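Exercise: predict the fold of this chain.
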Amino acid sequence: MPQFNIYSCLWLVCSLLLGLGYAFLLYRRKGSFSVESQKWLFSIRALSVSLICFLLYAPFIKLTEKTVEKPVIIFAQDNSSSLALVRPKDFDLKVYSAQIEEIRKKLSADYEVRALTIGEEVKSGSHYSFNESITDITSLFRYINDRFANRNVGAVILATDGIYNRGGNPQYQATAINAPVFTIALGDTVPKKDLLISNINYNTIAYTGNDFQVEVSIEAFLCRGKSSRLTVSDKTGRLFEKSFSINSNEFRLTLPLTLRASSKGIHRFTVKLASVGEELSTQNNTEDFFVEILDGKQKIVILANSPHPDVSALKQSIEANKNYEVKVILNAGLNITDLKDADLLILHQIPSLTVPATQLLQAAAQKPLLFILGAQSNIAAFSASQNLLQISPGGSLQEVTAGINSNFYTFVPDGKLLKEAPDLGPLLAPSGAYRIKSPASILFSQQIGHLLTDRPLLLLSDAFERKVGILAGEGIWRWRLNDFRINGSHELVDGLLSKIVQYLAGKDDKRKFRTYPSATTFGENDHVFLNAELYNDAYELINTPDVSVVIKSARNRSYPFVFSRTGNTYILDAGTLPPGEYSFTAQTEPGNNKKLYSEGKFVVIQQQAELRQTTANHHLLYTLAKQSGGEMITPRELDRLSDMVRKNELVKTISYEDRKFEDLINLKWIFFIIVSLLTIEWFSRKLDGEL
């Protein structure tokens, strides 16, 4: 409806007067018109002109539009293999699927029904295979929150046995959807006779010549009085064996064992339980796990002028990465022979006044170095001992914080670290004039208060026969404490130090063509990703030629692929592969008629989560329904489901009223009225010969 105020009314009166005045001037003489025609033409001209004049004032109109949205009923079906494995004798999956289809058709008459399946991920549709190896019920409620955030979700119908083996407790996530949850309690709450491997705890990495620990957790249900035997074997034969007796109907046992890391590579170990007979499933009596055995840990030696909190902080941060072994040597206990096997030397405030370090640096001529400066450092001796940084001492220390250098490309620092580095606290850096003597990469510059200086705080270089890094300040322990205060962990600082150590201690890979998997171990439902890098003669990344790869299983089945290009590198999504061990050979021809090859290995492990817990959890389903205003039913009560949804007061149609104001001049029908009036007048005058 039009909105008028005092000014609109005045302008309307003026418009009418203008229209009447204009029509009077035009039709004040009779001409050839009849009296009746002249009155009509006078009225048409007066109305047309009045409308046009009034529209020039730009009045607006209020429009109201109503939208009715039917409730969305989301039907989510658990598609996991536990439903096919464990079910009451009178329950038939095919009959059940047909009943569910009939219920959805009934509800579709009054509601918008969306069908989903739950497994490792939520999928749209109603194709039930009951073979998913993972159940993540929490992901269903996240999916609803993401996809139906602004929709009228009337109800969620969840058909499952209540067993979940990925994600958190779904009853917490369910509170966010603000809709009743109706649960269909599937599965069987009565335990079945079964012996199974419930879990295997182990480290995925071990080192040659070392022992590593493995813990095997065993569960047995309704097997009291039986006995079994646990064996662990690899390709060389049986490595471990132990018999045990089952003394209760709910039996749990954890067996620790020690295995030897004999040779480098990815090793497959098989854990097996002897069957007790008449089990629900013997498939969960056997499980494989894989351990990558490396040549050995890299040895990091920290040489410190004296005890300092930094030394302990460095040791803890570096050893957080299991690939490194740290040894701390103080000034008094320094022995040159300790440096022989070191892969990286960290010199904490060395050279100092008491340790010139000339002999030490000569003994470690080819080893990478990380200098950490502080109050005890001999700055003049430090400047003379390396060709990276020259400092003209100012005679004092000053507090500096980390200023970020956005042009650092030596490695990729954590994005969160770059944001929070200035908040990690100050380091104490030597004052004076700084001069970089050789090409270097600067990650942090010194920031004094709010002033970012050109003095480097952390810089790295490989411009020499060995790699060199310099942290021009002491107090890294403060960073570690503040990291924990801000984030509740030491991950940012530990990750930074790990990357610095990895860069300095890492052996340069001079291969021009490299391929590697994104992980050494994948789950059977995970997509297998491979990466490839190709370098030209100047060691610049290129991806012009095609890169092909053939993945082979242990059974000699081949899977050929071609890599896709991304940035300056290559990537391949090989999809999901059957469980087993795989090797791959990639090849490319960069244009010099010489083919380059690269090889690697990875494993795909079978996921048996659905076989580890088979007793339905109907208590969870009851809680989900109760807390949301829904109800729980059994498959025998499916006929009631449609009526339960319709009678629930929370399932309502929502009506939206959209109100908006629009300029009257934008309404097209007014334009056509004016044109029609003027057209009628024109034709009438034309017929009477007045034009």
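Check your answer against the key: The longest strand covers residues 389-404.
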